[in-house]
Amino acid sequence: MLLDINVKLRRGRFELSAPLSLENSGAGLFGQSGAGKTTLLGLIAGTLQPQSGHIVLDGKILYDSGKGITMPREQRPVGAVLQTDSMELAATVRETLYGSYSRCWTQRRLFKPDYLIRLLELAPILDLTIALLSGADRQRVMLARSLLKSPKMLLLDDTFAAIGNRYRMQLLPILKRLQAEFDLPVLYASRSLREILELTDQLIVLENGQILRSGPLRDVAKQQGMLRYLGVRQIDNILPVSIRHHDFTGGYSLADSFGQPFSLPLRPQFVPGSRAQVAIRANDIALSRGFIEGISIQNQIKGRICALIPASDSVIVQVDCGCTLLAEITSGACKEMALQEGDWIYCLIKTHAIVYLAELDALPYEKIVNHGDNYYFLSAAEANNRHFPA
Ligand SMILES: Nc1ncnc2c1ncn2[C@@H]1O[C@H](COP(=O)(O)OP(=O)(O)OP(=O)(O)O)[C@@H](O)[C@H]1O
C-alpha cells in the first residue's frame, strides 16, 4: 500500500473526512472549487495538521493522533507543489535548488540538480531571484525543488493551470516519465477531468470534504450521473487504450485495449506506449454476424454477446470483446439478425466515431466542411443543431 489516510479536519464550517487508500500508482484528485483538494494535499505534505486520524506513506507514519506522531514537513518523503506554498523571495533559483538538494540525504537522492535544470529548462533563470520570476516560472522552480527532495510521492495542486500553456505541453511527458522511469506516483489535484486524464485514469472524487468515489474512471463512471458531475456529457463506452504507433499515411493512430487493436483518429502527440482514454457512443457501433471485406470501417472487433437489454425503441447489446462494449441497435435490426446471448458478433466502429476523452471539452464541432455555399458540421453532438448559412 502506497498511501493510507483516514483523517478528520475541521476548518470553520468546512469538515474534511477522508478515508482513502492508494495502491502503488498515482491518481487524479478531482473536485469542484472548495471541495477540499488543497486541504487534503496539505495534510499529506504536512502544511496542515488534522484533528485526528492517521496518514501512512510507503510504510512510514506521517501522522498518527493515537500514537502522538507528527512528522514535520521537511522530513516527509513527499514532494509538493501547493497553491499555498511560498519560497524565499530574495534567494536565486540556483540557491533554492541546491539548498533543497543539500538537505536531501545522500543515499536517498534520486535526481541531480543538473538533470532537473535541463529537464525543466531552468538554465536561463538560474541566477534570477525568485521575486523576479513569473508565476509559471515559479511553479517550475517549485517542481524542481520538490523533486530534489527525492520524494516517494509527488503532490501537484492544479499545476498545469498555473504553469501556463507553453510549459504544460512539455510538463506532461516529463510527469509521465517521472511516473514510468522513476516509479514516482503523482497525486494531481484539479477541477478539470480533462487535465487529470492526460496523466492518469485513476480518480479520487472529492466533494465537500468527503470522498465520493475512487478507482479507475471506467468504474467511477458507472455510477449514474457521475460523468455529468465530472463535467463530461453522457457517453456509453469508455476504454483505456495504449497507443502503439502512428500511421501518417493511413491517417490513424493504432492502439490496443484489452488485447484488441483499435484504429483511432491520428494524434501524433501521444508517445507510443502512452495511455489514453477514449469514448464511443453506443449508437455509433454497428453489428455484423461476420467480418466484412471491402468496407471503409477500420474497426471490426469480435466479441460474444453477453446481454440483450431492451430500451424504449432499441436494444442495447452488451458485447464482451475482452472489454465490454455497449452497442445500441433498433429492435427491428435485432430481430432480423436473430441475435441471441452467447452469439459471436463483430462490432463495427468508424475510426472517427472514437473520441479521446481529453478532447471532449473541444466538442461540439469536430469538423466543419465547406461544400459550395453550405457548411456542414460533422458532429454527432450537433445533430439537432445543424446550421446551414444561407
Ligand atoms: N485557512 C482557512 N481557514 C478556514 N477555512 C479554510 C481555510 N482555507 C480553506 N478553507 C476552507 O476549506 C474548504 C476547502 O478549501 P480547499 O482550498 O481545500 O478547496 P479546493 O478543492 O482546493 O478548492 P480550489 O479548487 O478552489 O483550490 C473551503 O470551504 C475553504 O473555504
Automatic annotation (TrEMBL):
<feature type="domain" description="Mop">
    <location>
        <begin position="294"/>
        <end position="358"/>
    </location>
</feature>
<keyword id="KW-1003">Cell membrane</keyword>
<keyword id="KW-0500">Molybdenum</keyword>
<dbReference type="GO" id="GO:0015689">
    <property type="term" value="P:molybdate ion transport"/>
</dbReference>
<keyword id="KW-0813">Transport</keyword>
<dbReference type="InterPro" id="IPR050334">
    <property type="entry name" value="Molybdenum_import_ModC"/>
</dbReference>
<dbReference type="InterPro" id="IPR005116">
    <property type="entry name" value="Transp-assoc_OB_typ1"/>
</dbReference>
<dbReference type="InterPro" id="IPR003593">
    <property type="entry name" value="AAA+_ATPase"/>
</dbReference>
<dbReference type="InterPro" id="IPR027417">
    <property type="entry name" value="P-loop_NTPase"/>
</dbReference>
<keyword id="KW-0472">Membrane</keyword>
<keyword id="KW-0067">ATP-binding</keyword>
<keyword id="KW-1278">Translocase</keyword>
<keyword id="KW-0547">Nucleotide-binding</keyword>
<protein>
    <submittedName>
        <fullName>Molybdate ABC transporter, ATPase subunit</fullName>
    </submittedName>
</protein>
<dbReference type="InterPro" id="IPR004606">
    <property type="entry name" value="Mop_domain"/>
</dbReference>
<dbReference type="Pfam" id="PF03459">
    <property type="entry name" value="TOBE"/>
</dbReference>
<dbReference type="InterPro" id="IPR003439">
    <property type="entry name" value="ABC_transporter-like_ATP-bd"/>
</dbReference>
<dbReference type="GO" id="GO:0016887">
    <property type="term" value="F:ATP hydrolysis activity"/>
</dbReference>
<dbReference type="InterPro" id="IPR008995">
    <property type="entry name" value="Mo/tungstate-bd_C_term_dom"/>
</dbReference>
<dbReference type="GO" id="GO:0005524">
    <property type="term" value="F:ATP binding"/>
</dbReference>
<dbReference type="Pfam" id="PF00005">
    <property type="entry name" value="ABC_tran"/>
</dbReference>
<feature type="domain" description="ABC transporter">
    <location>
        <begin position="2"/>
        <end position="233"/>
    </location>
</feature>
